[in-house]
Amino acid sequence: MSAEHASMRIIEGYARGGTDLAADEVWALEAHLEGCRVCRDRLSTAVDAGAPAVAALVDTVWSGLEPQLAVTAPMPHGRRWSARLSRWMTPTMVPWLAMVVGVTLLALLLDLADTSSGDVSVVLLLAPVLPVLGVAASWSRGLDPAYELTASVPRAGLYLVLRRTASVLGVVVPVLLVGGWVTGVMVAQWLLPCLAFTSTTLALGGVVGVTRAAVALAAVWAAVVAAPTLATSRTTFALQTVGLPVWGLILALGIGVVIARRGAYTVLGAHR
Amino acid sequence: MNTGKEHHMTSAVNAADIAPTAYAWEIQATGLKVRVGRKRMAVDGLHLSLGTGVHGLLGPNGAGKTTLIRTLATVLRPTEGALELLGESVGGTGELRALRRRIGYLPQEFGYYRRFTVREFVEYMAWLKEVPKAEIPAAVQRAVERVGLADRADDKMKALSGGMVRRVGIAQAIVNDPTILLLDEPTVGLDPAQRLRFRELLQELGTDTCVVVSTHLVEDVAAACTDVVLFAEGRLVFQGPPDELASAGGPEHEGDSPLERGYSAMLRSPRQGRGAW
After folding, report:
1. pLDDT digits over A233-243, tens only?
2. Contacts of B116 in chain A (CB under 8 A)
């Protein structure tokens, strides 16, 4: 017998009620039994052999418990994929993302049909604001029923915001990538404005609420860039390659503000 | 020699379980003020110390109960004054992750995802509360059993009655075995039998947890609380055992039970007959 297991004397004494053991021996044995299956098995044989009263008591408890255990549903093993997905996006974000993907495909069709918009790419025009819609849905008081609960948990805050934002971008960017590739728009030309808008939404969202920020930025985009472009049928300065450094600067600024104000995402304000 | 993987020395209690607490009160507020909106101080200069036990937070509608509970849940930040939870100062803009792991919170408007099953939802909340991954299934099962929903654990939330949804709310609040448990109007939607069961659960939790229950039902407080906190217009009106509140009321005060008469006596004295209700 290994020296690291309890001796038969102690185990048999414990089975008889532990009265002939020292208190520290009982204590040490109980601590050992919690972690050692071998000694638990030896204890149960010792109980069966040496203490019929205890064995009878255990049997009574078992017969009382068994009907209760039979009706309790066991924990299902394989968890559903939707439950795993919820760690990346809330169920309420799914329809929004579906809509964003739908709009992108529609814009792509318009581009390919090449109707009235001249040489302006509709995909390019929509790319920066599309993820903003998804981000808004991920932190919205009106759209997410569990907003208050979510704000109160330890995982709330910048970490969860970035996680959900990443999942939005993870869906939107590949779709835009395909769209951009089909219409022949340079990747940086839409990706930088797209990321810049996302980071600005989060930065502004820390102050006025993410949904408000998203609505405001989408409105600014429509008024300043989209409307003039569609009116003049020419790609504006903002979306040409010369505008890229400006977008990079906005992106860096947005990220900086988000990091500096990361505590703002743990209170109710950012959920408006 | 060595027989199995399981063979290692484990101690029956770990150091964290027997470490002495470094604070006198689980919740301690001194001169706490919380502003809601632009102007209104919903909590206005509150001095309050709460320890282990079940504390019933009573007060008329609009007294600031929900604002106070939200502040204790750290989703609202104090405007002025000091608030210490478990010995840790709450204020500024920190993320308070370690503190939040030890708080359970059921908001007044308990929102949930209708397509989740009970177990999935409580599991999701356990994940958000950073319960260690290996402990999540057992913690979820325990919480669901404590609120008596073990047989409905794999039903979708949208198939549950209002009272059951409320119980899921309580289950998610206790899934992380909190030291501070904050329940905002938890008995709304529970039928009388469920309310009785809920009071038993409260008493059970109150033995080692600081439970704060906001309610407008005086009988809930009488049955389950060790301590009453009476709150009006953002200020503390009374704090003490339910018997003491009951003894404050006389036959001239309105109410059907001694506690209700005590309640109206306390609220009547500072501001006689203001407003129609």
Report:
1. 766 666 677 77
2. 82-83, 86, 91
Contact A75 B137 (CB under 8 A): yes
- The DSSP bridge pattern shows strands B210-214 and B180-184 to be parallel
CA-closest candidate to residue B31, choices B16, B41, B21, B19 = B41
Distance CA A139, CA A156 (A): 11
CA distance B236 to B68: 11
CB B229, CB B49: distance < 8 Å: no
φ, ψ at B29 (rounded to 5°)? -115, 135
Please report, for residues A45, A85, B19, B40, the alpha-carbon distance to residue B16 in angstroms, rounded to integers and kept in the order given: 35, 34, 5, 42
DSSP bridge partners of B180: B103, B210
Q: Please tell me whether the interface predicted TM-score (ipTM) of this complex is above 0.90.
A: no
The three-point CA angle A68-A72-A74 to 5° equals 135
Residue B153's CB: how many other CB atoms inside 10 A? Answer: 21
In the stretch 52-81 of chain A, residues with CB closer than 8 A to chain B read 71-73, 75-76, 79-80
Q: At what angle do helices A158-183 and A93-113 cross, to 10 degrees?
A: 20
Could you give the count of Cα atoms lying within 13 Å of B129 in the half-sphere of its Cβ?
29
Residue A87 and residue B127: Cβ atoms within 8 Å?
Answer: yes
Contact with chain B for residue A147, Cβ under 8 A: yes
Write out pLDDT tens, residues B128-152. 999 998 899 899 999 999 998 888 8
Beta-strand pair B103-106/B80-85: unpaired
State the Cα–Cα distance between residues A39 and A41, nearest whole angstrom: 5
